Amino acid sequence: MTALTPTENASDDHGHSAPAKLGYSPVAEIPHRLRVTDTDPKAARRAERQVAAMFALSMFFVVLSVAAYVMIDKTTVVYIPVLGEVGASNVALGFTFGIAVLLIGTGAIQWAKKLMPDVEVVQERHDMVSEPQEDNLAVANYERGKDESGFARYKMIRRTLLGALAFFPIPLVVFLRDLWVTPSGENPTEILSNTLWAKGKRIISDGTYLAVRPEDLPVGGLVSALPEGLLEVQEEEHNLNARGKAAIILVRMDPDQIRSQQGEGWDYNGILAFSKICTHVGCPIALYEQRTHHLLCPCHQSTFDLADSGAVIYGPAARNMPQLPISVDEEGYLVAVEDFSEPVGPSFWERDRA
User: Fold this and answer.
1) Selecting from 3.10.350.10, 2.60.40.1740, 3.90.1150.10, 2.102.10.10, what CATH number does the domain 188-336 have?
2) Strand order in the sheet with 222-227
3) What is the mean pLDDT of residues 284-294?
4) Global pTM?
5) Where are the domains positioned within the chain?
6) Residue 107 pLDDT more than 80?
7) Where residue 19 falls among pLDDT bands split at 50, 70, 90?
8) Cβ(151)–Cβ(33) under 8 Å?
């Protein structure tokens, strides 16, 4: 086997250089050393079995990863030096699936190094538009390369490779189950449609956790707030979910500047409460422009007009910012009148409306 290079350019009748037809010619300067598998059929057969074994083992480890996912309890831990206690399920899944990927890559490398052609070829640049004969030559070269790669010749490799690639996505499909774990007796629609807000629930400032009075908020001011009682669920498993869904902002403007609301009388003396979670992809928002009453999402620049029912005036968000109806209690503290009338945050499949 010898290295190849394109033929030299030819000249036309006027002495101008014309592009040569694409092709390859031997290059004596580049030595080529035959491998054992090039001269010994037994060595080639042995290499084929090695590559096929790697692809077959990859399928085996994929099956192991699925079995580990199903059989190992997620609360089980194992001790690993330096790392300490880690989840046994994570270790098993990482090891088995990682080995499966490694075996596919290693088998492909072994195949390329021992069985595929290792001839050095050089091809000069040419015009982007090819002549018909050049297209035919390219097709011929492709067919030659396909034949020399051995994909059709080495049936064992072909079949095990296709099997390994077919098995490879299985854990990805099985692991999708972990994207949502529904607590007993609840479903996604109920969880996403309800927050900690309820009738009479006081509004507390996020950070100080002190109840907010109307006089605490001047015209043009903004306060990030949460529902009272959030601290009581601080140690519970779903506290972050509850906090994210219930986070709101309070803004105050002149009542005459409020053009519309999502419900009649949902403000209190010009104080409006809106969800803090963008309806596009769920980014927290607190960028408020007092003069225009616009609320800007820093992630993708969705802009909402809080003086006009939190309507979207710019950006990719498709829904208004949900408004929380508020009032004051007997002691003069701001409270919620009820929960949000619609789910906060981005849309999801089970929503009744867009």
Assistant:
1) 2.102.10.10
2) 203-205, 222-227, 248-252, 271-275, 323-324
3) 92
4) 0.52
5) 4-179, 188-336
6) yes
7) very low
8) no
